[in-house]
Amino acid sequence: MNLENAKLAQMIDHTLLKPEATRADVTALLREAEELGVYSVCVSPAMLPVETTVKVATVCGFPSGKHTSAVKAAEAAESVSRGADEVDMVIDLGSAVANDFAAVEADIRAVREAIPAPTVLKVIIESAALSDEQIVGCCRAAKSAGADFVKTSTGFHPAGGASAHAVKLMRETVGEEMGVKASGGIRTREAAEEMVAAGASRLGLSGSRAVLAGGAAGGSY
């Protein structure tokens, strides 16, 4: 798969979620995002609001997911009030590992109700830490709860980030009605195109410039 740069750029959430990120770092990210023509930036909630011509995404319950649903819902709602167009929430991974997908769905639904459409809700399932059956269960829960996307990873879990296998399985589970976002460890153009070929409709990248240029990008996300 050889995607044109402009098309690939419009699939990218240009991301800066490092805890040590400064306002100056975020400002540089925004200007780079506009220059590269990416779809959005993804920044931590504390960095909102921002001024940019691209869409603004943020995270919720990040990175552990071990927050109550009420806290996640409140965090998401505050972020939207501060200018976020999209929210990437982290599920309670323990519920997924325990195969309690009713709890996963209830958690997602609480956030969905706090940020109704047109705000885009993406659900981070930390796919590298789950079995195939658990990935499917989480994707079904997200779809049932009214989420817009399922997303592979935070980029911070020791189990790893995105894989083409997980992306393909997620796409097969949610169908074409939802988006699939691949994130975590995507550092080359080849890896990005592999994720798109597997079914990803959005990519979370911290090294977007290098990926678009066809090189290798540093960074953990």
CATH class: Alpha Beta
CATH topology type: TIM Barrel
So how many helices? 9
Shape: globular
Number of domains: 1
| End-to-end C-alpha gap | 23 Å
What is the CATH homologous superfamily assignment?
Aldolase class I
Round the mean pLDDT to the nearest integer and report it: 96
How much of the sequence lies in strands comes to: 15-25%
H/E series: HEHEEHEHHEHEHEHEH
Low-confidence stretches: none
Largest sheet: 8 strands, parallel, barrel
CATH hierarchy: architecture? Alpha-Beta Barrel
Helical proportion? Answer: 40-55%
| Rounded Rg | 16 Å
Given helix and strand content, the structural type is: alpha/beta
Q: How many individual β-strands?
A: 8
Notes on the structure:
- With 221 residues, this protein is α/β, with parallel strands linked by helices.
- The protein has one domain (5-213): TIM Barrel (Alpha-Beta Barrel), CATH 3.20.20.70.
- Helices cover 42% and strands 17% of the residues.
- The chain contains nine helices and eight strands.
- The protein has helices at residues 5-9, 23-36, 69-81, 93-97, 101-114, 132-145, 164-174, 189-198, 208-213; strands at 12-16, 40-43, 55-60, 86-90, 120-124, 149-151, 179-183, 202-205.
- The protein has an eight-stranded parallel barrel with strand order 1-2-3-4-5-6-7-8, surrounded by six helices.
- Strand 7 (179-183), helix 8 (189-198) and strand 8 (202-205) form a beta-alpha-beta unit.
- Helix 3 runs parallel beside helix 5, helix 5 (101-114) runs parallel beside helix 6 (132-145) and helix 7 (164-174) runs parallel beside helix 8 (189-198).
- It starts with a helix and ends in an 8-residue tail after the last helix.
- The mean pLDDT is 96.
